[in-house]
Design a protein that fits this description.
Elements lengths: L1 H62 E2 L2 H16 L4 E10 L5 E11 L1 H12 L6 E10 L2 E12 L3
Parallel strand pairs: 1-5
Antiparallel strand pairs: 2-3, 3-5, 4-5
Helix pairs in contact: 2-3
Length: 159
């Protein structure tokens, strides 16, 4: 009889542990799954919104500019924005307005940095969100650094 009583006591203890630990953990897991699904949906919504804002910003910042001075400012701003957060040095941007034709402004960006940062810079310059169009990019060795020279332009606004 004592074995049966001991088995019954152990069974009751196991049931109490199951009810007090496993059942709440399952509830918490279900709530966490729902929260994760909501966060994933929110992240996707924010990605779409960010892509839309990037597209609008690049259009507004002068992917097409009406006058030469605004085009030069937009070109310089976009070129300098591409270097933001990268470990590049010796950055220089030169730009000029173009009076005729479809090109509103031309510019050149020169910078030196590590290989990875040089590639990141060229990728940022080539991205549609930069608002720049690349004419030529050259990479060269400058001591222990990589030198990036990028010739860019911005198109005139079609009216």
């Amino acid at each position: 009889m004592t074995r049966r009583a001991l088995a019954l006591v152990l069974l009751v203890i196991a049931a109490v542990i199951f009810v007090s630990l496993v059942v709440p953990a399952r509830r918490d897991r279900g709530a966490a799954e729902k929260e994760y699904a909501l966060a994933r949906a929110e992240r996707q919504r924010l990605r779409v919104r960010l892509a839309d804002l990037d597209r609008r910003t690049s259009e507004e910042q002068g992917a097409t500019a009406a006058d030469g001075a605004a085009a030069v400012r937009a070109l310089r701003r976009a070129a300098l924005q591409a270097t933001k957060g990268l470990e590049v040095s010796g950055v220089s941007v030169s730009s000029t307005a173009s009076e005729q034709g479809a090109i509103a402004a031309r510019g050149q960006l020169v910078a030196e940095g590590g290989f990875v940062d040089a590639l990141r810079l060229t990728r940022r310059l080539a991205a549609p969100s930069s608002g720049l169009l690349l004419q030529r990019v050259s990479l060269g060795v400058a001591g222990r650094a990589v030198r990036v020279e990028a010739n860019t332009f911005i198109l005139r606004e079609v009216q």
